[in-house]
Structures are given as structure tokens and as C-alpha cells.
Amino acid sequence: MAEERFRKEETLEMRQRLIGQSCRLFYSEDPVKIVKARGQYLFDENGKRYLDCISNVQHVGHCHPAITKAATAQMDLLNANSRFLHDNIVLYADRLAATLPKKLSVFYFVNSGSEANDLAFRLAEQYTQHEDVVVLDHAYHGHLKSLIDISPYKFRKLAGQKEWVHVAPLPDTYRGIYREEHPNPGQAYADTVKHLIEEINKKGRKIAAFFAESLPSVGGQIILPQGYFSKVAEHVRSAGGVFVADEVQTGFGRTGTHFWAFQLQGEDFCPDIVTLGKPMGNGHPLACVATTVEIAGAFTANGVEYFNTFGGNPVSCAIGLAVLDVIEKEDLRGNAVRVGAHLKDLLKKLQQRHEIIGDVRGVGLFVGLELVTDRRTKTPATKTAAWVVKRLKEEDRICVSTDGPWESVLKFKPPMCFSMEDAELVVRCIDRILTGL
């Protein structure tokens, strides 16, 4: 166990004094002090082990030896900026291109999902020469000012909605305006975007982009209805805009069946811009924008160089390549399919026994368990969700968090090495806690 520098109380006191208080901790009433991690497990200062159902960033598992080895070997050799010619950046871009549709063939490397989405926004504006953006309700696209402006999840608590930002309904078939029983919710929700664009055009405005997370996460682990993206893309492109798929949360095989979550919408669908982030570097700050030759060409034509000091450096790209290798060698997509299906199946069985479970949804290792006080009215059981999270941490040393507009969805986005036994343990513990209600 790594040597502890401060007692937990001292660390907490220093954190409260030195770090901005808007940077919140998990379990703020009684935080966990984590000093070590391996795979899907976290260890506190006393050596107690916690099962991690939260860290989708540590995609192939915490402190994976292959990632550490690749990082240290390249760090020992060279780490310079991308203005120097180097193999790693082109090797990595080539490997990423092989996972994406052919037309997404130009890459810009950055350091975070927020940087990637900000750059995607710039590319869209430059290419279309339009300003307006359509986003989904409850969306979150990052912490930069440009992205707060297009994230209803944030701007509703702050300065409010800008006139160039337009919010379309979240295609939530559990509690949205069109639900499971609707004959074609994908088409119906896409029509809401079509009507929104018509309203925008009537005001003499034009859209640059439609931004959407391929699987809305902050919105409550939403699985979008089939056909939605293809239809929306038609409406957006005919209005002169581009389609941006935000894969920051869901990319790199988390869905199991596909490498990218937007591919769940069918082989014929391809976004114009895709943003990648969180899991890309397994905890190392690494993100990217992938786009078409035409959009990249328009960005080049403005005559202004795009330079990102750390983006695409040799160490970051070595780590990115190692992450792709581990996903392949350890069949982590296959694991996401098997374990994700098992977890979902166990939660569905739990739903039959506990009236408070309103919905179980997900794909691969992206799963949501929505709690409600009444299944008919679907009233969010926010307090109970928080209570379950607290009990799991205190009694079972399992780390889970909540999401959704009312924080009533228990979300599961664990490292991709999460096992069948881990899934069974989590469900057993949730069952015990809900039975105690």
C-alpha cells in the first residue's frame, strides 16, 4: 500500500481550504480517500477494497500494466509537441480511422472531451457559416463557456438560454413525450427536431449543428429509439447544418456490440463530426475530434493555424494505442456484451420484485436503473436513489452514482473488465437494500 502522507481528516481539511468548493467530492458527507486502484477495484487508506461502478474513464481497468508500460517507455524516450514529425500520432489516427466509417478520416487531437466539443463547434461554424445550434434537453457537452451555453443541464442553473441555442425534446421512451407504446418513437422525436428547425428558419436564423450524445448520459442513461439519428441528420443537413455525435462518454466499445454508440442507430448512419474523450486514455488526458475531408478543409481555409500544445503528443498517442490493444487482446467488447446483458437481466428480475424500480435500460456496460415512487405517474424517487448509493458505499463498499434530471437513476458505467461476479454482487446488495425499505 502506498505510504499515506496525511490522515484522511487532514486531507479533507486541506481540500476544503485549498480547492474551490464547486469542485465536489463523491460522498461529500463522508468522502472515501482512495490511495490505490487495480482493474475495477479501488483501495482506501486502510486497505479496504471498493468495487467501482463509476469510473468509465478508466476504461480497460485502473492502472492497467500494459498502459503504464507504454506510457513510461515513451516518456523515457520523447515527449514533444505535435509540430515535430513523429510516428505515434499518425499510427494512432490510422488505428482510430479503422474503427470509424470511411468518411470520418481527419483527426484533431486535444486533451479533454470539453476541448473536443468546443473544437467541433468551431468546425461546424466554419464549415456552415451559420451560428445556431440544436441540442437535446438535459444535455451536457462540457465545462467550457461555449459548451455551458449548449448544455441545458448547466445553463438552466446559470445565465439561461442564448438566442442561438435551441432545445429539442430528449428522446426518452420511458418518461418523454413519446413512449414505448408509440408505433414509431424514432420518427416522432425526429419530427420534433424538424419542426424546431422550421421555427428557427422562420426567425431568419440558420443552424450550424445538431449536437447529441450518442447515448444521453446526464439525461439518465437514455437509449435512443431506432431511426432517430438518421431522420434527424436528414433534417439537419437539408437545413445546411452538420450532425455532431458526442461519444465522450460512450465510445471505445462500451456498448459491446459496436465500437461507437452512434453505430447502434444503423450501418447507414454516419455523423459529420464525432468527438471522443474520457475513456480514450484510460485516465490520461486524451481526446479527439474526427471529421470529414470537406469540413477539415473549410477549417484549414480560414488561414488560422490550429495548434494544441499537448494534443497528440507522443506519450498521449502511445497510451491511446495501448488502450486499443488492450480492448482487442482482452476482448473487452465481448465482456461488455456478456456482463452487460447479465447485469440488465438480473436488474429486470429485481424489477419484478420491487415496485420502486420503474425502468431498467441500457446496452453493454452502460446501464440505468430508474427508481420511482409510483410506476403509473413515474414520480422520481430521488431521495431513495441517494439513500441506496449511501448504503452501497457504507455497507457493501460498492461505488455507484446517480444521474438523470431528478438524480433518480442509478447508473452503471464501470471499467470494462467488470465481471459476472461483480454484477451479481451489486444486484444482490441492491436487492437487500430495497427489501429493507
Automatic annotation (TrEMBL):
Its cofactor is pyridoxal 5'-phosphate. It comes from the Eukaryota. One of its GO terms (cellular component) is mitochondrion. SUPFAM superfamilies: PLP-dependent transferases. Keywords: Lyase, Pyridoxal phosphate. Pfam families: Aminotran_3. Gene3D superfamilies: Aspartate Aminotransferase, domain 1, Type I PLP-dependent aspartate aminotransferase-like (Major domain). GO terms for molecular function: lyase activity; pyridoxal phosphate binding; transaminase activity. The keyword Transferase does not apply. Belongs to the class-III pyridoxal-phosphate-dependent aminotransferase family. This is 5-phosphohydroxy-L-lysine phospho-lyase.
